[in-house]
Specification:
With about 290 residues, this protein is an all-beta fold. About 0% of the residues lie in helices and about 70% in strands.
Length: about 290
């Protein structure tokens, strides 16, 4: 039984956002085919959104190194670190389990582009590893192949795994939603409460791609790509048992809590076609279609 219910979320929610950022990048060429680069980024935002306010500071550093091994392998590897700290101004309608949290993200990747047959067959293998404060280590491998049977034809394919890590709001935010008017009327007021789930995990995507490029004319190329995306552990809402509450005015209301879980799944598939035509050196036409 709830004895301190919140008010309803206002229908007119207006906000104001201000911010600033600083970006610094350093690059050094170690050889004609080797390069080292580093980047530092700082961002500050102050965002008000009617029922709350968020102040966030983010520091981000990453670096990468590209170099060849022999005549067939080109290696790119890198690492990064991000620290983001927030502070939320809350009210009874909008509350985090912790008003201020600093989140860290460590990442590293390595990619090897292998020339199996010069100018004909190339394979690219890579993996990215991240560590976040919610789900720990996450691995995202990928593989890509490109085959050119002739001077004007290229066939390529790729398989990759992508991860979307949870947002802090999905694991620790509680807020209230006014029920849609399509719901049947009840003898007591009805509120919907969204509760964060501290066990909410990452969403996964396995992407399959296949493409073909042909140069029909020295000034005309045509690209076709098909894709199939298989999603798992997607965000889904689970309705919890209803609760009866008493407002400060001693009026009863009915509360329906809902929490996110990783029970969703899905797929997308389609085809993309793009053409580039350059009738003269200073004029280029591009057209595309996606289904």
């Amino acid at each position: 039984l709830s004895v301190s219910p919140p008010g309803l979320v206002p229908t007119d929610v207006r906000g104001k956002s201000v911010g600033a950022n600083l970006l610094s990048r350093w690059t050094r060429r170690l050889a004609s085919d080797s390069e080292l680069s580093m980047q530092f980024y700082f961002d500050r935002t102050d965002r008000g959104f009617g029922i709350g306010r968020e102040i966030r500071d983010t520091v981000d550093w990453d670096g990468q190194h590209r170099f060849p091994i022999g005549e067939r392998n080109e290696i790119v590897w890198g690492a990064g670190y991000r620290y983001s700290v927030d502070a939320f101004t809350q009210n009874p309608d909008f509350q985090f389990s912790e008003p201020s949290v600093g989140l860290r993200l460590f990442s590293a990747f390595v990619q090897d582009e292998i020339s199996l047959v010069p100018d004909r067959l190339r394979v690219t293998l890579g993996v990215k590893v991240e560590h976040n404060d919610f789900t720990g280590f996450e691995q995202m491998p990928s593989a890509r192949m490109s085959w050119s049977p002739g001077e004007h034809h290229t066939v390529w394919g790729a398989v990759s795994l992508a991860i979307r890590t949870p947002a802090r709001s999905e694991r620790g935010l509680t807020y209230y939603v006014t029920p849609p008017p399509s719901l049947p009327s009840l003898p007591v007021p009805l509120l919907i409460q969204a509760r964060g789930n501290p066990d909410f995990g990452s969403e996964e995507l396995v992407a399959y791609e296949l493409g073909y490029r042909v140069q029909l004319h020295p000034r005309l190329t045509l690209d076709t790509a098909t894709f199939y995306h298989d999603y798992d552990d997607l965000w889904s809402a689970t309705l919890l048992p209803a609760e009866l509450g008493i407002s400060p005015a001693a009026e009863p209301y009915l509360l329906f809590p809902a929490t996110p879980e990783n029970k969703g799944f899905g797929e997308t598939y389609g085809v993309e076609v793009a053409a580039t035509w350059q009738p003269v050196d200073s004029w280029r036409w591009q057209a595309g279609y996606t289904f």
